[in-house]
Design goal:
Helices cover about 5% and strands about 65% of the residues. The protein is mainly beta. A hairpin with a 3-residue loop joins strand 7 and strand 8.
């Protein structure tokens, strides 16, 4: 399966520029509102001993605003605008013949970013010849703003789908946010809700 996935990525995703339309979300029980859009480029697909790896670069425009009691944006609470590079690496496990792996942030220009030393495990990789999908589970926890320079520990789980629509590649990221107990690492579904992020080839 890994060779078929490699060729699918090589022929349909690598070198393509994708754009994510603006996504709006709320945080901190409606006290904050974020708006996000980006451009994505996938590159550096190479074979490894038992699998493959590739990079995803994002040019991100993300602002999180404070909201007043009427829900109107006031000041900017966080500016996560910048360029980041993420590395995906997957390999076939000899014990199960399953393709698993991880992704992490290699470098970023985002100020006060929250992805440093954060890793997501990749599993449940499915490829039917036309669509590639996998699950991502974030290990441990990262920070999410709750206002006034305060943060809470959270973790993102997500499903990723890559497929073609009218000969153009589509990359879907469907996130689920969990609040994390930093002592026990127990996860509880967060009240903050993120919508799907859908990126389409230009």
């Amino acid at each position: 399966m890994k060779d078929k996935i490699f060729h699918f990525l090589e022929n349909n995703l690598i070198g393509k520029e994708l754009v994510t339309d603006a996504v709006v979300y709320t945080l901190a029980n409606g006290k904050l509102e974020g708006i996000y859009n980006d451009q994505m480029i996938f590159s550096n697909l190479v074979r490894t001993a038992n699998g493959f790896k590739f990079n995803m670069a994002t040019i991100t425009h993300e602002l999180i605003y404070n909201l007043d009691k009427k829900g109107v944006r006031t000041t900017i609470a966080k500016d996560y605008t910048g360029t980041s590079v993420f590395c995906y690496e997957l390999a076939v496990r000899k014990s199960t013949n399953q393709l698993t792996g991880y992704m992490h942030c290699v470098s970023t220009t985002v100020q006060n970013q929250t992805m440093e030393a954060v890793v997501c495990g990749i599993f449940d990789v499915i490829f039917d010849g036309k669509e590639l999908s996998w699950q991502e589970n974030q290990l441990l926890y990262r920070d999410n703003p709750i206002g006034e320079d305060k943060y809470k520990p959270v973790a993102f789980d997500s499903k990723v789908r890559i497929y073609l629509n009218e000969e153009k590649v589509v990359y879907e990221y469907l996130p689920i946010l969990w609040d994390v107990n930093p002592r026990t690492l127990e996860k509880r579904l967060s009240k903050d809700d993120y919508p799907p992020y859908i990126s389409k080839e230009v």
